[in-house]
Specification:
The protein is of the alpha/beta class. The chain has a domain at about 20-110 and about 175-260: 3-Layer(aba) Sandwich (Rossmann fold), CATH 3.40.50.300. Helix content is about 40%, strand content about 25%. The protein has helices spanning about 10-15, 60-70, 90-100, 115-125, 130-145, 160-175, 190-205, 220-225, 240-245, 250-260, and strands at about 20-35, 35-45, 50-55, 75-80, 85, 100-105, 180-185, 210-215, 225-230, 235-240. Strands 6-7-8-3-9-10 form a 6-stranded mixed beta sheet, with helices on both faces. Helix 5 packs across helix 6 (about 160-175). The longest helix is centred in the C-terminal third of the chain and has 16 residues, at about 190-205. The protein binds adenosine-5'-diphosphate and magnesium ion. It catalyses: a polar amino acid(out) + ATP + H2O = a polar amino acid(in) + ADP + phosphate + H(+).
Length: about 260
Amino acid sequence: MDHGEATTTTEQAATASHLGPPLVELVDVNKHFGDLHVLRDINLTVRKGEVLVVIGPSGSGKSTLCRAINRLEPIDSGTIRIDGQPLPEEGRELARLRADVGMVFQSFNLFAHKTVLDNVTLGPRKVRRVGKAEAEKEALALLDRVGVKNQAHKVPAQLSGGQQQRVAIARSLAMHPKVMLFDEPTSALDPEMINEVLDAMVALAREGMTMVVVTHEMGFARKAADRVVFMSDGQIVEQATPEEFFTNPRSDRAKDFLSKILTH
Ligand SMILES: Nc1ncnc2c1ncn2[C@@H]1O[C@H](COP(=O)(O)OP(=O)(O)O)[C@@H](O)[C@H]1O
Ligand SMILES: [Mg+2]
């Protein structure tokens, strides 16, 4: 994650030694909602161990991109591969893909009437057929990792938003995903809870997890991202290292966007 000089180019970042082979590949991906062309010829490769931050104005297609990667949203044309395999259309193969691709949303989507522990063990027990004792042992270890082990026997409503989001991260990790997608994971949180969630994500990045993170948190991008992708109107307009992007954006659209988020 340390690429040395601030002038490191995108190409150098993409060949940084800690990165493995391509894990998520999008080739000429297009997607429409009716007349609206929301993903336009998206070409993007995320390598094993890479942390990619996706940034851009509201409505630029960031969520659709994430949803396309785990096929919550079908695409109109192009190819998406996870670990070399094209996305399956449906059935058991699709369920397996969903297990490979963890997703954490803005809203935590925890089961309200189940305990934190049950929320985390449910997926492994149902989908991966892990036994109860083993699933609980791993769940507690994951909850510990994100700092909420002592909340295991509560229900979500008894937790703060920041704690719930960390439970959502543990729940995703329990499926042993190959890649984790985060779609604005801190944007629904009160400001004082943002850092505890970002810290858990930084730790995950440092452990080598492959991550695609939609966020405007520049501190996270600078600390953890290998690469920043700037989207506007369904296109990838610019990609660079965080340092390069935030200090020297090249396109007018990126300059305009950054001037808006930086003045707040
Ligand atoms: N299910 C949908 N049906 C119709 N339009 C949609 C749907 N989901 C998103 N859109 C539109 O697609 C565009 C991209 O949305 P989205 O991917 O959510 O952008 P972002 O996450 O960057 O804000 C927006 O104009 C949005 O209104
Ligand atoms: Mg969005």
